[in-house]
């Protein structure tokens, strides 16, 4: 974690926190998300699930799935460094529109991407929800 500077918290789950960060020595000043999971108190089965998630992320390379950069363990926590999608989550985008509906073509585009990403290996463990679908800033319309 010493290689990264935390900017802000972007999400939180039952056993994890996601941070928006920048690599300290990156000349391109790219932002990344670091998902840090507390391993303390987790069963061996849940810890194995985390390792499986990392193994899967390392293998997946698809334009509709967030990219994996690296992972590391510090004491009783495990962190995954991933690509940052500046656009945010679909539920955030819906809320920001204040009730203004999307064009059918945009909805179809989003839906198609989710289906293709899921078809890539049927890896969604928690189902499809608008809060789990993220998009790049260029998708705002």
TrEMBL record:
Pfam families linked to this entry:
Pkinase (PF00069)
Catalytic activities: L-threonyl-[protein] + ATP = O-phospho-L-threonyl-[protein] + ADP + H(+); L-seryl-[protein] + ATP = O-phospho-L-seryl-[protein] + ADP + H(+)
* Alphabetical UniProt keywords: ATP-binding, Kinase, Nucleotide-binding, Serine/threonine-protein kinase, Transferase
UniProt GO molecular function: ATP binding; protein serine/threonine kinase activity
- Where, in this chain's numbering, is ATP bound? 35
Query: Which residue range or ranges hold the Protein kinase domain?
Result: 4-141
Asked whether the UniProt record includes Transferase among its keywords, one would answer: yes
Q: What class of enzyme is it?
A: transferase
Q: What is its EC number?
A: 2.7.11.1
InterPro entries xrefs: Kinase-like_dom_sf, NEK_Ser/Thr_kinase_NIMA, Prot_kinase_dom, Protein_kinase_ATP_BS
The name on file for this protein is non-specific serine/threonine protein kinase
Species whose genome carries this gene: Onchocerca flexuosa
